[in-house]
Structure formats: C-alpha cells, structure tokens
Amino acid sequence: LKPCGAVGQVVPFACRYSDPESVARAVRGSDFVVNCIGILYERGKRATFQRAHVDIPSLIARSCAAEGVERFVHVSSLSCDRASSKYAQSKLAGEKEVLQHFSRATILRPSVIFGPDDSFFNMFAELSRYLPFLPLIGGGQTKLQPVYVGDVADAVEACLFTPRVREKHNPEGKIYELGGPEVYSFREIYEKMFVFTGRKRMLVNLPWGVAKVQATFLSLLPKPLLTRDQVETLKSDNVVSPGAYNFGTLGITPKALDLILPGYLETFRAGGKFSLAAYDA
Q1: What are the CA-CA distances from residue 64 to residues 20, 28, 203 (Å)?
Q2: Which of 23, 82, 159, 238 can pair with 106 through a Cys bridge, CB separation 3.0 to 4.6 Å?
Q3: Computed from CA positions of residues 157, 161, 166, 168, in that sequence, does the dihedral angle turn out positive or negative?
Q4: Alpha helices in the chain (DSSP H)
Q5: Cβ distance 246 to 240 under 8 Å?
Q6: Nearest in space to 72 (alpha carbons), one of 35, 101, 23
Q7: What angle do CA 178, 182, 188 make, to 5 degrees?
Q8: pTM of the predicted model, to two decimals?
Q9: By C-alpha distance, which of 123, 255, 128 is closest to 195?
Q10: Is the separation of the CB atoms in 61 and 53 below 8 Å?
Q11: What phi-psi label fits residue 271: left (phi over 0), alpha (psi between -120 and 50 degrees) or beta?
C-alpha cells in the first residue's frame, strides 16, 4: 500500500489481534477505522471463523469506542443473514458484536468481489487452463451479484465522509448491501468468463451431496479449492435484498462485469493478452 500514497502518507505497522492493548494502539488517534479482516476457510486453532469474524471485530469495535473514533466501517458479507453456513453465521455474529460495542458503526455487506488479482474469477480461469470441465455445484442455479472492488472502496469512502447533517443519508448505524448492476447464475458466471478467456469448457452438474464429498478432499489442500462450508454457502442466493440500503443510497453507480473483466481475464487467453485471439474478440 505504501506506493499508493505520497511519501510518509501510508504507514503500515504491526498489530497483534490477540492483544487488546496492541489493537488499542492501532486505533488510538484515528478519526476513521475500517475493518476488512476476513477468511474464506478455517485452518488450525487460530484461523477460525469465530476469531476472524467475531472476536477480532468485537475487539476493534470496543477499542474504537474507548478511543473516541469518529466513524467505524465494518466489511461483512452479503446474505450472511440468510445463509446457513458457518462462514455466514460468523459474519452475522460479528456484525452484532460490532454494533453492540459501537452502535454508530456502518456495516457493508458486499457480494462476491471481483477485480485484478481476485480469488474468484482468477481461480476459475486458472483451472480452465488445465481442466477439460468445470463443476456446476448444485446445478449452477445459485444467483450472484458480483461487485467491483473499486466500487466497494468508494462505498467505504462515502460512509466515512457523508456528513451527519444529511439525516436521511447519514450512514452511521446502517447496514448497506452492495451488489453489482447485474445478477447472474453460477452457470452464467462461467459463460461470461469463457467469453473473455477464450477457453470454452464443458460444465458438469455436481449435486450438493457429491459436491460436499469432493470438498472434503479438496479442503485438505494447502489452499483449498472448495470446502464443505463453501458448498453450504452456495445453497443461498447472494443478491441484494429489495428495499435494502445500497449503492444508490450512497450515490454510487456500480460498474458492470463487462467493463472490468476484459482488463485482466484476457491474460488467460491462449498466447496471452497480445494474442491474435484477444484482438479478434
């Protein structure tokens, strides 16, 4: 992050999240605090959903309250109030902890986040290089509303700087659901990816039960491709609820997949981004 600011503007420092005093030092003197901590799968006794999504946000919220922080934005996950997975339930519990200790906190619930170096489209595009087929978990009917990482960053900024005097739009104590302008099924996500990578692959239906069996083995990898809990998460649609506070409430127009994906998925084309196939597309 240091090169993203002027000299001395961005200063990283260590913080021990198991030490309340270390967290308090990190927060002390801050006007704004943003918590982006989260994990997609559990590992060992320390990297658990309970610790990452509940205990640490609770500690940060308490520190924000004690240190007189003006605004605190907590990044959660869309559909955490509807999904039954451990991941979703821990995200929801974390929200409750944050609001209990810092009632003015703003909660952001983004859908699947995409952008350069993301772990969603890049992972499936990489798999398409080596596999003749890709799995459609549960038939690929789960609805997703992918959101661009830059738009989520804009939402954080809006929540930090919107004046309190604009009572109707005051973000303090509110929950915002953030999704892109389009809703896709998982099957449609694959098809969109095939267009920009130029790599058409067969799609194989994978019933929920079979997917969980496969996830049992895939979760043993150093960086799991799929876990049983992720399969459970996919049983719930990941879309913005009708009537929820959203990008429109913050005055932001989210960007479509078609505007962003070609910029980084074309590197997965045969021959790379400068191949004839890329130009023909």
Answers
A1: 11, 8, 48
A2: 159
A3: positive
A4: 20-27, 49, 56-66, 86-101, 121-130, 149-161, 186-197, 208-218, 228-233, 257-260, 262-265, 276-280
A5: yes
A6: 35
A7: 120
A8: 0.92
A9: 128
A10: no
A11: left
What tokens were used for 50?
Answer: 């309970």
Structure tokens of 240?
């913005």
Q: Going residue by residue through the chain (281 aa), what tens digit of pLDDT does each one get?
A: 888 889 988 888 899 998 999 999 999 999 999 999 999 999 988 899 999 999 999 999 999 999 999 999 999 999 999 999 999 999 999 999 999 999 999 999 999 999 999 999 999 999 998 889 999 999 999 999 999 999 999 999 999 998 865 667 789 999 999 999 999 999 999 999 999 998 899 999 999 999 999 999 989 888 898 999 999 999 999 999 999 999 999 999 999 999 999 999 988 887 766 665 544 54
Using the 8-state DSSP alphabet, how is residue 238 labeled? Answer: B
Residue 78's alpha-carbon distances to 86, 158, 222, 244, in angstroms, are 14, 19, 26, 11
Residue with tokens 């308490």: 62
Q: Among the residues of 179-235, which ranges form H helices?
A: 186-197, 208-218, 228-233
Please give the full DSSP string across 25-62, using - where no structure is assigned.
HHHTT-SEEEE----SS-BTTTB-HIIIIIIHHHHHHH
Half-sphere exposure of 71 (CA within 13 A, CB side): 18
